[in-house]
Amino acid sequence: MELDHLIYPSTEHQPIRTTKPHPQAPEFHHQKVKEKPFNSSQAQIVFQELPEHISLAYTIYGCPLACKGCHSEDTWDKRQGHALSDQSFTEDLVTYQGLINAVVFFGGEWHPLALQAKLKIAQAHGLKTCLYTGLDSVSRLLKPHLDFVKTGRWIPELGGLDATTTNQKFLKLEHGEVVEDLTHCFRKSSNNINSTPYLTNTHQGVTHASA
Questions:
Q1: Which residue has the higher pLDDT, 197 or 151?
Q2: Does residue 62 sit within a domain?
Q3: Are strands 128-132 and 148-151 parallel, antiparallel or unpaired?
Q4: CATH number for 59
Q5: The dihedral of CA 177, 98, 187, 108: what is its sign?
Q6: Which domain holds residue 74?
Q7: Considering the chain, what percentage of its residues have pLDDT values greater than 70?
Q8: Of 42, 98, 117, 156, which one is least surrounded by beta carbons within 10 A?
Q9: Which is it for strands 6-7 and 16-17: parallel, antiparallel or unpaired?
């Protein structure tokens, strides 16, 4: 199918066609693009997911990975939860101002622009940002707005972040680049009886953290 080449003059808002449209090409400039739902669970305050931080956490529905052994298959359904708009997200941050110093998203990378907007809002409020993804890498649209990221899907036989055999990683980022691997922070230490590892066979499923 022949594609239309479009020019957007600085004084006009409507596209100008420079080629004859294909007879079967849709009149896309008259159609509104339907936004995909960015549905979330109710916000929760969490402590272990981001070491040394008190975080406001959101589980985003619609995970496409369908990991074997996932304990929260209900989060696969994008129709569940409630729409998390930029306005409602901002209102949450204002409500919890002074009580949190970070925001954690369990999933949502499949809506990079919507998630990017939330990350920018969090940063504007002086909060650290963290994404738990089942992917091995993160979109370039998101990296500059993330301070931490957990990567890797949930594989039951390899375990989660607290397992030495895990495929998952917890990374610190600066300006979109990985500067430190913090996976060890989630593991038990014989030298630190007060350590709080990521003890979450159940939690991993509930929060999409390892799915």
A1: 151
A2: yes
A3: parallel
A4: 3.20.20.70
A5: negative
A6: 40-207
A7: 68
A8: 98
A9: antiparallel
Tokens of 48: 């272990």
pLDDT score of 79: 72
Structure-token match 């499923």, residue found = 205
Q: Which positions ≥6 away from 186 have C-beta within 8 Å? A: 51, 160, 161, 162, 170, 197, 198
Six-digit token pair at 110? 């499949």
Q: How many CB atoms lie within 10 A of CB 193?
A: 7
Domain assignment present for residue 11? The answer is no
Q: No. of H helices and E strands in the chain?
A: 3, 11
SS3 30: helix
CB 203 within 8 A of CB 159: no
pLDDT value, residue 130? 97
User: How many percent of the chain have pLDDT more than 90?
Assistant: 42
20 inside domain: no
